[in-house]
Amino acid sequence: MMNLADLVGKKDFFAKEFILWLWYLSENENSTSFKTDDGYELIFIIDNKLTLEEQIGEQQAIFKGGSPSDSIEAKYSLQAGKVVKECSIKLIRTVNLQNDPNMLEWSAVYKSTGMKLTNIKLPLVEEKDQTQRLLKRAQHLESFYEYIQLIYKEFLKLRLNKDKWDETVSIIQNWIKNV
């Protein structure tokens, strides 16, 4: 019988496809924006570090600073068959990007092996009372995971629809080929 860690490991390709899909959207749809049920807009950004690796072998390409996903070298690495191993991400929740007092921002490192989120930075909490501060931080952490799940569900809706996924794969392959 397969244990949970083995099962997750066999599904790592979903995690790699997920981040590649978001990368494609950010460059070609000019937005990785998703709507929440409570009216917020979520904006997903590949931030300042991107690591690609060979599918077989140990060689990695690490891109840092600015928007590494915009670099021509990162795209050439995709052409060479490398896949996203990990990247820094930013998630922004807003109603309106211009002067939104309720805008919140999280950042983390996304690791495609096991689809792990590490080094999570939560929005600033200004509560003076330590109990209230801890509660607010816990709420921010819970919201972060809920928002990541919402985005992943959007990906899975597409991924599990064979016709739509085949079309998306073709579009992404053309994007990679035409760097």
Chain-wise SSE layout:
Layout: H1 4-10, H2 12-28, E1 33-35, E2 41-53, E3 60-64, H3 72-79, E4 83-94, E5 104-111, E6 116-121, H4 130-159, H5 162-177
Antiparallel strand pairs: 1-2, 2-3, 2-4, 4-5, 5-6
Question: Top keywords for this entry?
Answer:
179 residues, alpha+beta, 6-stranded antiparallel sheet
Characterise this structure:
The protein is of the alpha+beta class and 179 residues long. It has one domain (4-177). The protein has 5 helices and 6 strands. Strands 1, 2, 3, 4, 5 and 6 form a 6-stranded antiparallel beta sheet that branches. The termini are far apart.
Structure in a nutshell:
This protein is of the alpha+beta class and about 180 residues long. It has one domain (about 5-175). It has five helices and six strands, in the order ααβββαβββαα.
**Into which percentage range does the β-strand content fall?**
25-35%
* Global shape: globular
DSSP helical segment count:
5
| Rg on CA atoms, Å | 17 Å
C-alpha end-to-end distance: 44 Å
Oligomer: single chain
- Average pLDDT for all residues: 86
Query: Helix and strand string, N-terminal first?
Result: HHEEEHEEEHH
How many beta-strand runs?
6
| Main sheet: strands, sense, barrel | 6 strands, antiparallel
Helix vs. strand class: alpha+beta
How many domain modules? 1
Percent helix: 40-55%
Question: Which ranges are low-confidence, i.e. pLDDT below 50, for 5 or more consecutive residues?
Answer: none
